[in-house]
Amino acid sequence: MENNSNFEIRKPPVATTGILGWCRQHLFSNWVNSFITLLVIYFLYQLIPWFLDWSVFSADFWTNYKGELIVDRTFCSRVADPEGDHGACWAIIIVRFYQFMYGFYPSEQVWRVNLTYFLLVVALLPLLIEKIPGRKHLIKFTIAFPIVAFILLYGGFGFQIIPTNKWGGLLVTLVLGVFGIAIAFPLGILLALGRRSQLPVISMFCTLFIEFIRGVPLITLLFFGMVMLPLFLPEGLNLDGLVRVLVAVTLFQAAYMAEVIRGGLQAIPRGQYEAAQSVGLSYWQMNRKIILPQAIRISIPSIVNTSIGLFKDTTLVIIIGLLDLLGIGRGALADATWMGLSNEVYVFVALVFFIFTFSMSRYSLYLEKKLKTGINMGAD
Amino acid sequence: MKKLLSIFAVLAFAFSANAGTLDDVKNRGFLKCGVTTGLIGFAAPDDAGNWAGFDVDVCRAVAAAIFGDSSKVEFTTTTGKSRFPTLASGEIDMLARNTTWTLSRDVNLGFEFVGVNYYDGQGFMIPSALGVDDATGLDGATVCIQTGTTTELNLADFFRANGIGYEALPIETNDEARENLFAGRCDVYTTDASGLSATRAQADDPDKWVVLPNIISKEPLGPLVRHGDHQWGDVVRWSLNTMIIAEELGVSSSNVDESKGSNIPEVLRLLGVEGGYGEMLELSNDFAYNIIKQVGNYSESFDRNIGPDTPLGIGRNLNALWTDGGILYAPPFR
Prior knowledge:
The complex is a heterodimer. Chain A has helices at residues 18-26, 31-57, 77-80, 91-95, 97-102, 110-128, 135-154, 170-195, 200-215, 218-232, 241-266, 270-278, 283-313, 325-333, 342-371. Chain A is mainly alpha-helical. Chain A folds into three domains: 1-49, no CATH class; 58-95, no CATH class; 168-371, MetI-like (MetI-like fold). The radius of gyration of chain A is 27 Å and the shape is globular. In chain A, 32% of the residues are buried. Helices cover 38% and strands 17% of the residues of chain B. Chain B has 14 helices and 14 strands. In chain B, strand 2 (44-45) and strand 3 (51-52) form a beta hairpin. Chain B is globular, with a radius of gyration of 21 Å. Classes of the chains: A mainly alpha, B alpha/beta. The A-B interface holds A 79, 82, 95-96, 98-99, 103-104, 163, 165, 223, 226-228, 230-231, 235, 238, 241, 318-323, 327-328, 330-337, 339-340, 342 and B 8, 11-12, 15-16, 18, 36-41, 43-47, 49, 52, 74-79, 81-83, 85-86, 89-91, 175, 198, 201-202, 204-205, 310-312.
């Protein structure tokens, strides 16, 4: 084909390549799409400048429009000068930032919470980064993390005990979310395997458990944990309120997780089981080495989905009186010093939740890419 | 649900029939008090994370009476739904959470209301531009009303009794009601008068709103304890009574020390200079002195948290002393 070199290679038409082509193909491919595109652009044009103005450019942070330090709501520009064009008053968040993060945790002990947050990141490292040096040892730490975190946060072993009614804010949200997901995951695997088990008693128990838990709303389970659990415990043993809620949240999440993983299990071709059995693997070996790695891999999007759901559902604990991130925000609004600044509080709480859930969903996308879950299993 | 709750309450009570609550509290070294998750003026955490408010002061008064230290309280936040189970299960020693004293709660749920610290009642708030000064003039108004509450039933009764009509705009929370009212989607908001004052205080210009004088229901709010432990009930009851009696006698946190040299016998009895009234409650004889010194009398607590000089700006009205035209009244301290 050497002699073809005197032909000029024509580029594709300008309208189909580059930014222009992309726009034409994706945004203006026909009348309806063009109309929707313009409509959306118009709304964004209206919304984004307004929101930026409200939340940043005309907003108060530490000081108001006169340059005074904001110590209560009456100093906020939009309260002090209702006729003027003023935006959010973030001072409520800044002044109460400690409460939003830690609740009523004593400030001289708060390094324990910070250390726990730091160790949480360390514990997540081997899960997030596959090629991290010393991954095997780090994994051991990850498994031990819940116990370490409990001792650090609650106390004992020489640490001063901080009762859980002093916990609050993001701390409670994270404790419920992280512990709930971390305990529910292995529990969910066991339940999923149990439901598919050949042993009728185990399979019936697991099915009943899953169906019962899935059949009632989380709020019901929370009340169950709050009100009825103490009645089943021996006299004198008073389980901590947060622990009882954690039990309810974990059971709820485990049931959903079990169904997600069962979905993954059902997608594994029969041949995989038969192959595993034919090489003489035991039930547990087969599941641990052959079945579960594949099943979990295809379930990742759903696992992350239910985890995000649970993380957001933790705000329901306000109904039984625990002050999580949202609860602390509402508490701040119930103080005469700051009442009425609900927009600021709710926007801030939404932002914090968004940061966490968005990170989770990004991580799931990264995992999917890394494990190529989209590819047909048989051909992989 | 109520029936179920009462069964739990009875069960929980049967399980927790142990030593006296007062001894438990003394041994533990602090009081466990249930409050709301946040209600303007009545209970809310301040910027430093300390609970403050009119209901919180009742808890602090009891702690001052028992330990001589009003800070020895741990607060447990409860909601309208969780408050009764939490008290029944013994997780808290007492509940001071704007709870209306009703027959069924007193009798059926197995609790004991030890007194009333705030006489509330359902009222109406309207824009002052409406030019109405009595609720009977609200014919045809759109009313923001929290669904599933007694306020809804009271409202229907009131309008029916007066032969006038209204249109209900159902809402869920206080915040929602506030936004709807301020945006003009309803003409009237009805809930307990204290809640109306809190809503009014949050307006950009509170003068544009008025709370009408009509009060259409009785909502006596007070602290409560579990039924059956009368000694403990007495401690909480007389801690509250002490605050009211102190106001009657003109004893406040600022003059309590001088008052020890008073020549009024009841003041001397109250402050423990004469008689052994504290011992009768198994407290120290100066328990009332500690309450007044550290928490203050009723009017001090009222003015500090919900009174005319606070953003809530609630007048004493029904909560004035019986000698000042209100119905606040405590039995004699003797």
